[in-house]
Amino acid sequence: MATPVPPGYIRLILTPQDDSFFLEIPTTVTTxxxxxxxxxxxxxxxVILAVLGTIHPSRTDPEVDYEHDIVDGSTYYYTYPxxxxxxxxxxxxxxxxxxxxxxxxxxxxxxxxxxxxxxDVKKRDKRCIFSNNExxxxxxDHIIDFHVGDAWIKHIFDARYNDDEDDDDYDPNETPxxxxxxxxxxxxxxxxxxxxxxxxxxxxxxxxxxxxxxxDMHEAAAPIFDLEPGYKYPTECRYTLQTLDExxxxxxxxxxxxxxxxxxxxxxHTNHKSRPSxxxxxxxxxxxxxxxxxxxxxxxxxxxxPNMTRPPVPVPAKLGPDxxxxxxxxxxxxxxxxxxxxxxxxxxGGAVDDGDAMGGPEDEDAFGEDSQVDFAQxxxxxxxxxxxxxxxxxxxxAAQREAAIRERTEDIHxxxxxxxxxxxxxxxxxx
Length: 431
Prior knowledge:
Blueprint (H helix, E strand, L loop, with lengths): L8 E5 L8 E5 H6 L4 H13 L4 E3 L18 E5 L14 H12 L5 H15 L12 E5 L7 H11 L25 E5 H8 L3 E6 L23 E2 L5 E6 L6 H7 L5 E2 L2 E2 L10 H16 E2 L32 H15 L32 H11 L2 H36 L2 H4 L2
Parallel strand pairs: 1-4
Antiparallel strand pairs: 1-2, 2-12, 3-4, 5-6, 7-9, 8-11, 9-10
């Protein structure tokens, strides 16, 4: 690397052949968020790249022992099969999504839909799922912000949803979603937790997942309010709220959230399939990790991926009356103002200089006038859409479409042969 790892941090390299994309993570966060910090690094690699890999101290050394402590100031490498992370024909690329999804996202938001979403989420949760604060003092929050629109949610599940029961990534409680206001894309949060969630300080890990077991997480902190009768913590999984802010002290975290690791509780008899989606929670966690810790030259910029097959630009259906949150001029003005403050650290669809941060909470308008989705969100979806599992699903879908076309063609041929035989029969010909 061009620069040494700063004291108090570790570096996680995510690119397979060079160091052009990496995370620089506060060491205290890795130990605070997981009993086994090296397994936490594996989780980060998994949720960002959608490929279950392994952690190595160098590109040539064997896999680490996850029972060992993490070493401050060290560099670790997330290694995965050589077929993973390569450009896949037909994948959903960020520059296409900019035009197809983001350009229409604002038009999909209506006050009616937001009101229905709030009502449905609060009906399911009854209280803040982490603090147990009563519902009148809580807000219904989206996991993936409603500004991205329905098409973005569909792209996420097209890339990540797995219905193969024999796969390690299979979750029987996941339901494929195609609308941003689905109840599985939300939860009820107290006003204080809502504030820090909106500030991109909090993430939620659902365990078990392919990288982490429930026992790998720290023991859950006690919630701010005692659990009311009729509520329980799920026994088959955990939803653990964490802060990724290294400046957060234990005393402050306990005062604000109940502690560093707080589990979600739900009303008894809550339908498991209606709970918050693990896929969306982990997408959100990946985006947050890149916003806070992502560095390096972005190897997925157009200069690094010439001659790729790109899908046609879809035209999303109009959903209800337009509700323009900001005009193009306002968005452009905001983007220019933030660019002038941030200098070279501002991302504008291309590469980031080595060592520069890849956007943060202040960079939400980094793509200018047509953006409601920042670079980190686009990058994660890009990586998910070209994972081996996503490529396999595209191949299976293509094979099913081809089989359906062949079957229809054969049906037409059979029908045509039947009709020809009928009209040329002696009875019809009068012979």
